[in-house]
Structure formats: structure tokens, C-alpha cells
Amino acid sequence: MANEPKWIDLGAEADLSTKSMQKVTAGGVQIALSFKDGVFGAIHNACNHVGGPLGEGKLDGDYAVCPWHYWKFHRISGTGEPGFEADCVPSFPLQAAAGRVLIDIGNPTRRRKAPHEHHPLERDVTRAPGPLRVAGISTTAMDGAHPRFSGSDYLLGKALESATEDGAETKLLRLDDLNFRQCEGFYSKGARACTWPCSITLMDKQDEMERIYEAMVHWADVILIATPIRWGAASALWFKMAERLNCVQNAITTHNKILIRNKVAGLIIVGGQDNIQGVAGQMLGFLAELGFVFPQFPYIAHSRGWSREDMERNMEVIRNSRELTEGARALARRCLGLSQRLIQTDPPPEKINRGGRKAHDLGLS
Ligand code: FES
Fold this sequence. Notes:
Blueprint: E1 7-12, H1 13-16, E2 21-26, E3 29-36, E4 39-44, E5 58-60, E6 63-65, E7 72-74, E8 94-97, E9 100-104, E10 133-138, H2 151-165, E11 169-174, H3 186-189, H4 199-203, H5 210-219, E12 222-228, H6 236-244, H7 246-255, E13 264-271, H8 276-290, E14 299-303, H9 311-320, H10 322-345
The structure holds FE2/S2 (inorganic) cluster (FES).
């Protein structure tokens, strides 16, 4: 049975018909108002997915396309695009009278949310029993068909060997072997547009960043990340991965959901030139924001200094340095030792709302 109508004047037809899609507010309700082929349509502004603003999207034929992750809803009926008709956003009756557009906000159709398959990464994060697990992540770039010696890779191999000898399970992930897209800044569209799992992971089945998420969030107790120094900074692949890990941090901001807990990180930093402490500081700061903890002396590093331009000599130095090999092995032992203690005691999460950040300006507190 229809409710009592609540007609509200949205404005002049001549003004409202200048845009194909726009967000308007009527009686406190946000509406995605469309105009096409002489006909207005009004559906609720909030997308069924995670609430994206449909009125800020665009039209694809008669479908409003959500600007966050591109779900589509019929601009007049609110029904999902073909194949997703079970999803529906509320639509509202409209009337044009004396050059004005009126909306009845008292009689929306019902919102229906169809069940959508959950991505495996969405499962609860609980440590599976078994030996300690160490994921080595190499961030160096090279031509796989013509591999060269990499000092950071070499030392990462030594650290993983040591971890294996100490009874840990290990796996090595080379970012260079993975086909993964750059972060596209979903966060900049809206805090909730950056989802866990990553919006790109959910939409692009070919994207292989999933393997890093699986290792970091679900599998590993310890991650060891190796990077070369490039122009005084970590490698470009490190930054590409770090940007895609924004969703792990954002889960804390938007949902107070801490995905990384009681996990340990260590770093191996190798460069022909200097700025080791700058590189370490940036990487440690970022990993701390995700929730990783660090052993005492959380990185090892090597560089021959700014004035040394003899990289072939640098490779020889690394290969022949017992000190660096022992340093890499000792780093693995420190990380495993801390991890062991964390797992045994399983300290409960600190009660720090949203990792110490304020979120009230997002309307999320
Ligand atoms: S598609 Fe609309 S919020 Fe994700």
C-alpha cells in the first residue's frame, strides 16, 4: 500500500535538465537525479555496494554508473544492470508541473541487496597452526630472461635459508614476477571507496597483488623485504606495492579493522650509493602504519657511498662478505625470535581507536 505522498519541489525543469546526472537533496534524502531523452529519473544516491554516490557518476545508456567501482543501476527503476537485477536501489516517483520538478520522497521502492560472493581474502584473519612462516619479498626489478646478480636478493636468500634451517616455512615472492596494477587512488574518491580487499583485486581477476595480500595478511608471521636503493629511495616496485597496501591501512581508518597483528617485519637494504637511513625510515614508518612490529635492529644494509661508482665491485663485496651474510641470517633469527614470543603470548590488540587517528571528519567515528 502506498504511503502518504511527500512531494518536494526539486527546482526548475530548465535548470535541472542541463545535467545528465547530478546529486540533489530532498527532505534530507540524497537523490541521484538523471535527465535523458526528455525524461527525468530519480534513484537513491547511495550505491548498493559500499555506498558510492551515484549522482556523481555518469550515465551508460539508461544506467547510472557508480563512480567508485562502476556498478550500474537503471536510472529510473533503480534495478541493477542485466545479470544483476536482484540488486536494486530505491527509485522515487517524479512529476513535472508548471516548469518545476517534484519528487515524492514518501514512496520509494525498496532497496534490495543480492548476496555477492565473498573474496577469499575477506575471511577472518586467524593464524593457522604450524611452524613459523616467513615471506621474503624481493622488490628489485630485472629482466627475468637475462637475470643479473642482485645484492638485495642475494642477502634475502641468505636470510630465508637461515629461517628454513631454524625450522620455519619460507616462501619468496618477487614483485617483478607479479602482474599487478598500480593503485588508482580509490581513496581519493572517498574513504570507503578504498576497500579491503583492494577494489582492483575485486574487479580484475588478472591482477596478482592478491598473492602479496594473502602472504602478508593471512599466511606469514614474518615478512622480510629486500630493496635496492634507487636515487636515494627504495625501489619503484616497493612503492608500487606500498600504494596497493593502502587498503590494509584504510581498513583501520574506515572500519577500525586491524588486519596485521602480531606480525614482524625486517628489511634488507642494499645500494651502490647512500641514504640507507632515509630508505629504512620511510619503509619502517609505512609498515608500522599497517600494524607490523619490529625486532631490535630491524634492518641490515650495505652501501659503498656516494663517491663509489663501481657497481661491479659492489657485487663482489656483497658476495664475499661473511659479515653481510651473517647479518642477513641474524636479522632472520631476530625476526623469528620476536615472532615466536608474540605468538606464544598472543598479546591482545591495544585499544587504540583507528590506530590513533581521528576519523570524525569522515563521519566514521
Ligand atoms: S560500485 Fe558503488 S560503491 Fe562500489
